[in-house]
Hints:
Layout lengths: L2 H4 L6 E5 L4 H12 L3 E5 L3 H11 L4 E4 L7 H14 L5 E4 L14 H21 L1 H7 L6 E6 L13 H21 L4 E8 L5 H4 L3 H10 L8 H12 L10 E4 L8
Parallel strand pairs: 1-2, 1-4, 2-3, 4-5, 5-6, 6-7
Amino acid sequence: MKVEDLFSVRGKVALVTGGSRGLGEMIARAYVENGAKVYITARKAEVCDALARELSGVGACISLPADLSRMEEVERLAAAIAEREPRLDILVNNAGASWGASFSAFPETGWDKVMDLNVKSVFFLTQKLLPLLEAAGSADSYSRVINIGSIEGIRTSHLETYSYAASKAGVNHLTRIMAKFLAPKHIAVNAIAPGYFPSKMTAGIAEEDTRAVFAGTPMKRMGNADDMAGIALYLASKASAFLCGAVIPVDGGLATTA
């Protein structure tokens, strides 16, 4: 098989949550530029709409803003996709939030907000979209669910982001159990565990903490858009046809060599 066919997403229908910026934008852009029809969703409608307009100059990109921390919004988004599409080939559960505070001062709101968006929405959006994912999958070509975990769910970080780290460990393991029970439905579930990439979240990290991250990363840099595009295209294409329940660190070696 030719390389371009092995990694192709042309003609596929994808939904990328948190798709208006950061990792979600990198993934959505990679899919659109390679021929997929991509729906993006994010809480801020104006940002989501603006990116969809930009990417529509390259391919097919549709904005469907939603706040996935709320169950009624999860259900509304799933219904909106079902009204427009008979199938969904690729679901990227990327929407996420973080919260930092000392152990003694960490608030309940900082726990619940992160858990609801980072873990609860991953499970329930996939559940609500199950009929469309099943419609897209077959024994020869599984549909794909790609969860965005984090290396912070693998390693013990120097940052006091308790709910974020716990949520991403949850996503990493939720990926494995979803993979086990959805594979018989011809849906392959895998996860990306990113390290440090340019984003609003990492921009809020103190300079000394960023220096510590670079010092501990064998490749001595942040990830970039091509790094994320490569793994996202791999997990959505025929190239990863036999992957099921994998959690793949994309971190320049930060978590895997410490």
